[in-house]
Amino acid sequence: MLKYEYHNLLASKQMLSILPKDKIFDSEHQVKNIHEEIMAERRAKLLGFYDLPENSTRHIDDFIANLDPVFDTMLVLGIGGSALGNKALYSALKTEAELPRKLVVYDNVDPVFLYEILSQINLETTLVNVITKSGTTAETMAGYMIVADILKRKFPKDYQKRIIVTTDKERGFLRQVIKKEGYKSFTVPDNVGGRFSVLSDVGLVSSAFTGINIQELLSGAKAMRERCSEPDIMENPAYLNGLIHFLYYRLGKNISVMMPYSNSLYDLADWYRQLWAESLGKRKDIKGREVYVGQTPVKALGTTDQHSQVQLYTEGPNDKVITFITVENFKHDYIIPNLHPDHEEVNYLGNRKLSDLLNAERLATEIALSKAMRPNANIVFPQIDEYHLGEFIMLYEIQTILTGKLLRINPLDQPGVESGKIATYALMNKKGYEKEHAEIEKYKQDRDIT
Ligand code: PA5
């Protein structure tokens, strides 16, 4: 079970003047009301991510069982919620679980990045998974058209078996393509938004392909959902962490740093970054009033960023809440040999595990931050495996909904992203965006850009 250590978030012997515990209980009633609201939305099937652990994965198991054994690599073409979860799970487990197949994610429109990927993979043995809920995102569509064209030309007889598509059940032009070409397809559930979709086909197909145990992932998520099903704040880590972040945000801590002490979990911090930023960063509240809220998520890596960011976190503006992620047991470890026993400069390291040094440094950073009155929490993975990753995902998804509701905004929409998408269509002369195109031309003229 994931451990959630929050003692340095609340006033204690170490943290005298931060958030008094009473403040938490002042919000008890509010959180209870929000809990009722969440339960009602769950019953109305508006928060589909809660129910993903129960969804059948038979179709994925069958697909993997019948997969042409030639495929040893999956190339995901997707962006945002259609890519970050896939990356996070693969990065976390590729070494820890010794995954037999490889995942590569192209989540940009950078031509050099695409060139690098295409030079590095063997197309003969690569299965391409186009993931897009809307089926219209320019980045994903551009990547799809380039890669599908290459495959069609290289494998005219059987390119169809080399492409699968994950998209909306009915809507979107990709459904027509799927029908016409006969591509194998998977579904993004209607009531699950992109950044909450990692435990749907969006993240499960690529995970199962690489060899991740998706049942364990879902079991972990389910267990965390149960752990977070009580309205009692002190019994519910998602509500407690969400509430504390909210209260700190109201106290001017505008930044939330997630700092795993594990390279394997660095992409998980990236997944969190999108979840927190896109869900909570909103101009309007649910009543349409302008509020301009959101806490900026930042990712940092321990120990690497101790030599880059921690100076700022310890002595700079006290505007951050820091969450460490600690791993207790690593699959691979080293004993540091006592190569220079007569030299005090290094002999204290001799015969110690490398992971002991890593976790000692994490604790040292925690102590330094706490002494400087910087609120910090610690999420502890007993080890990196599917179960604990499933727990982590569900914990943060529920926390995000709670915090969104405390902020009185809609954590499920993303109007700012949509307006950027519209501007891109207009700039690229997509049909139907003529009015926006004219506006942009005017904007360019005003800025004297030709
Ligand atoms: O969370 C979200 O909804 C977004 O980040 C989307 O995942 C992202 O914009 C990609 O959208 P789509 O899956 O429709 O291509």
Which helices and strands occur, and which strands form pairs?
Blueprint: E1 3-5, H1 21-26, H2 28-43, H3 58-65, E2 73-77, H4 84-93, E3 102-106, H5 111-120, E4 126-132, H6 138-154, E5 163-168, H7 173-181, E6 184-188, H8 201-210, H9 214-227, H10 237-250, E7 255-260, H11 266-280, E8 282-284, E9 290-293, E10 296-299, H12 310-315, E11 320-329, H13 344-347, H14 354-371, E12 376-383, H15 386-406, H16 415-427, H17 434-446
Parallel strand pairs: 2-3, 2-4, 4-5, 5-6, 7-10, 7-11, 11-12
Antiparallel strand pairs: 1-12, 8-9
Helix pairs in contact: 2-15, 4-8, 4-11, 9-15, 10-15, 11-15, 16-17
The structure holds 5-phosphoarabinonic acid.
Can you describe this structure?
It is a single chain. The protein has 450 residues and is an alpha/beta fold. The protein folds into three domains: 227 residues, Glucose-6-phosphate isomerase like protein, domain 1 (Rossmann fold, 3-Layer(aba) Sandwich); 165 residues, Glucose-6-phosphate isomerase like protein, domain 1 (Rossmann fold), CATH 3.40.50; 26 residues, no CATH class. 45% of the residues lie in helices and 15% in strands. It is built from 17 helices and twelve strands. The chain has a five-stranded mixed β-sheet, with helices on both faces. Strand 8 and strand 9 form a beta hairpin. Helix 9 crosses helix 15, helix 11 runs parallel beside helix 15 and helix 16 packs across helix 17. The longest helix has 21 residues. The protein is globular, with a radius of gyration of 23 Å. The model has no long low-confidence stretch (mean pLDDT 94). 5-phosphoarabinonic acid binds next to loops.
